[in-house]
Design goal:
Blueprint (H helix, E strand, L loop, with lengths): L10 E2 L16 E2 L5 H11 L4 H5 L3 H20 L5 H31 L3
Antiparallel strand pairs: 1-2
Helix pairs in contact: 1-4, 3-4
Length: about 120
């Protein structure tokens, strides 16, 4: 064991080294890993846009964040007493994301390490 997580293993871009790359015949490697720090910063600062969901390859959930925030904002402008009907699901989704983000990041990174080019 090398001491690094599996998702940090480099992935060859040139079919396992069979083809020659432009870098003097050396294989070209990339590392595809999502960062938990970036995901949490996006969650904290841009939660209302669902930016962390787009970063973690969940565009449907990102759009859900945007739509629910637009609905909650519209209800707050019209009837401030009942805007919480749309705001409660947003808060519950935010709390859920706080605790499940490391699991999602690990899943995405493990998929990225298994992908071959």
């Amino acid at each position: 064991m090398t001491g690094q997580p599996e998702h940090y293993r480099p992935t060859p871009l040139n079919n396992g080294g069979r083809a020659q790359s432009f870098a003097q015949g050396q294989p070209v490697y990339i590392v595809q890993a999502k960062s938990a720090v970036v995901a949490y910063l996006l969650l904290i600062f841009f939660w209302w846009l669902g930016a962390h969901k787009f970063y973690l390859r969940q565009p449907f959930m990102g759009i859900t964040y945007i739509v629910l925030n637009l609905i909650a904002g519209g209800l707050f402008a019209l009837l401030p007493v009942i805007f919480w009907i749309a705001y409660v699901p947003i808060v519950l989704m935010f709390i859920w994301d706080l605790f499940t983000m490391p699991i999602r990041i690990g899943f995405i990174n493990s998929l990225a390490s298994q992908r071959g080019y």
